[in-house]
Design goal:
This protein is an alpha+beta fold. The protein has nine helices and 18 strands. Helices cover about 35% and strands about 25% of the residues. The chain is elongated. The structure holds zinc ion. Zinc ion binds next to helix 3.
């Protein structure tokens, strides 16, 4: 069956599958229901050897035995929303409205249909292919799913393609980040009677001020940022605060700049530790790319050619923090591609353009087939 027939035959089944997946909650860390569903779905369509690994990734290998040049197609299963009840879902003629629909539920559905095509057409590439529905991509999931995959398949993966972007957008540069929770404690006291005692909020604010005085390192086209995201603490308006906590992060798409930020933050925390009772806990760690670009051009060119051929539009390249951070930090070519048009990612107002799924499935299918050396 040619690709366009497969895609047109599967447009409505894809919408139904997407609706089903949307209604299965999958907050980061609680992805098992989607994993169980995906494994059963694949098996129903004839997949053999599907496993759910220790990180709650669904892994479906085809002809991987003995290969050290496996191609991975992945889509993350988790959403940023903590809801354990099904998220609100509605649709009209043109759109589907549901938190997480584009990021990344539709990409899961598309990848399931790509896997089905491989099963139906008995495509068994010489170097093997892994379909992975992975957990832990969002927020403090810290890429646990991809980390686990790359440790279970250490040295055996040749390239990694993740469906996790908008149609026509590709993420080729990775943004690394480190995140911290910092708690500072003092003796505190009564605001009038003990005036002059150290105040935890005031002391923590000094650290915030130091962070905001950092001059971010610059290398070529790279971008480096920092942020203090939350701050909490104190007891009451008439109490000298005994405790204050903040969360903060820095990010960069350049490995040297990320290392420089790590050094600068360590100096700030170290100086604060000398003067205060302070606990610094690293709550997030996403590596960024190594400089080694081997194989990246080839992967990028192939993905770009397919997307431009199908959509007729120029691809935009972006930097992002995704599952690709893990392979890129290991020097393995990795790219995020998109298979649908959607807006409002990470908001409850997220919506997806239904019609874009036909082009999206075509892009995903052609990319997958060409990457494993099939005509498409
Ligand atoms: Zn995503």
């Amino acid at each position: 069956m040619d690709i366009s027939t497969y895609v047109s035959q599967h447009y409505f089944p894809l919408l139904t599958l997407l609706q089903t997946l949307c209604k299965i909650p999958a907050p980061t860390g609680t992805e098992q229901a989607r994993a169980v569903f995906s494994k059963a779905w694949l098996e129903e369509h004839g997949a053999k050897g599907v496993v759910i690994d220790s990180a709650k990734n669904v892994v479906f290998p085809i002809n991987c035995e003995g290969s050290d040049n496996i191609t991975v197609f992945a889509a993350h299963t988790d959403t940023v929303f903590p809801d354990l009840a099904p998220l609100p879902y509605s649709e009209d003629e043109e759109k589907i409205y549901c938190p997480g629909v584009g990021d990344n539920t539709a990409h899961m559905a598309v990848l399931l249909l790509v896997a089905k095509y491989f099963i139906q057409h008995q495509i068994s590439p010489k170097d093997g292919v892994l379909f992975v529905f992975n957990a832990g991509e969002e927020g403090l999931g810290n890429l646990i799913g991809t980390r686990t995959l790359f440790s279970d398949y250490a040295g055996r993966i040749g390239r990694f393609v993740s469906l996790d972007a908008k149609l026509g957008v590709m993420n080729t540069r990775t943004v690394g980040s480190h995140r911290f929770e910092v708690t500072l404690r003092t003796r505190g006291g009564h605001s009038f009677m003990d005036f002059g005692e150290q105040n935890a909020i005031a002391e923590l604010s000094k650290i915030v001020a130091k962070i905001y005085a950092i001059e971010v390192p610059k290398k070529g086209e790279s971008n480096t940022t920092y942020n203090v995201g939350t701050i909490t603490g104190g007891t009451s308006v008439n109490t000298i605060a005994q405790s204050a906590t903040m969360t903060c992060e820095y990010r960069s798409d350049n490995i040297e700049c990320l290392a420089k930020m790590e050094e600068t933050f360590a100096e700030i925390f170290f100086a604060a530790e000398l003067e205060n009772d302070i606990t610094v806990q690293r709550i997030g760690d996403r590596p960024c790319s190594v400089e080694d670009e081997t194989g990246m051009d080839e992967l990028k060119t192939l993905c770009q050619a397919v997307a431009e051929e199908v959509t007729g539009e120029k691809v935009t390249f972006k930097s992002s923090s995704t599952d690709c951070n893990i392979p890129r930090s290991l020097g393995i070519p990795a790219i995020c591609i998109g298979a649908c048009r959607f807006e409002g990612a990470h908001t409850r107002e997220e919506w997806l353009e239904k019609a874009s799924l036909s082009q999206g499935l075509t892009v995903a299918l052609k990319t997958a087939l060409r990457l494993v050396g099939e005509d498409a």
